[in-house]
Specification:
With about 325 residues, the protein is mainly α. It has 10 helices and 3 strands. Helix 3 (about 100-130) packs antiparallel against helix 5, helix 3 packs parallel to helix 7 (about 200-230) and helix 8 (about 235-265) packs antiparallel against helix 9 (about 275-295). It is found in: Cell membrane.
Amino acid sequence: MFAWSPDVNQSGPTEFVFRVFTTVPELQALLFLLFLLLYLMILCGNTAIIWAVRAHSSLRTPMYFFLSNLSFLEICYTSVVVPLMLSNILGAQKPIPLAGCGAQMFFFVTLGSTDCFLLAVMAYDRYVAIRHPLHYALIMTQKLCVQMVVCALGLALFLSLQLTSLIFTLPFCGHRREINHFLCDVPPVLRLACADTRVHQAVLYVVGILVLTVPFLLICVSYVFITSAILCIRSAEGRRRAFSTCSSHLAVVLLQYGCCSLVYLRPRSSTSEDEDRQIALVYTFVTPLLNPLIYTLRNKDVKGALRSAIISKAASDTS
């Protein structure tokens, strides 16, 4: 899958190192503790969502099935990046081999793409729930929900495999190259190739359009129909509840797609490596952290399920 040209590896196999955030030991320790705390909060928050959905029978509906899958994706997504990132904050730069960099890119792109596709699936679920409430249970069957998640993952795997294998057939000059990033993301790795990358840039834009633009347009179309249906609800309380159900999902969509589009769909001439690294911190830490917070704080069902699950767990431990 990954190949490199022998004429550019005269001093041994190609390795990469990540550019350090800072060389000041005190700031390194502070950043390490900050990112570790955020990572633990992401793990706890998303695990709590999965636990609540599995433990509470009232949450075994398509919406919460997709939400628990989203939380699982967020855990995997951050775990591909953050442990290696933390290990590189303290001490000397630790090299990552070419194959290891390719593996991280493959899983990062796969999980991130699945995340985007799943948000589009969740928009369709809200569309069916609000536009066709009487037929919701008949349309959104368990089989269809599983098929939609599997299709999202399968498409993400296919696109990620093509993109990653294409990039890692490029030659990388020198034995050790520094990536101006904290992970093996596509744009910073492409910048290190000592070959013409115009075709690879074009493929990246095509994949970006398929992963970001197309699902986002589908979400927008879904919300046009959803909004028109909500406005037809006579009860003010009914309209408020419907808007509340959708607003959490919409907030996550805007944050996720907005940040990713700034990195992957901007023209290369207008991009800055430092800006890309800063934006990547948002969709690596902020979005996975906000997902459980947004859905929990704005959803009485999830809050109630978490509360009852914690109480029942505490009661079983004391008995």
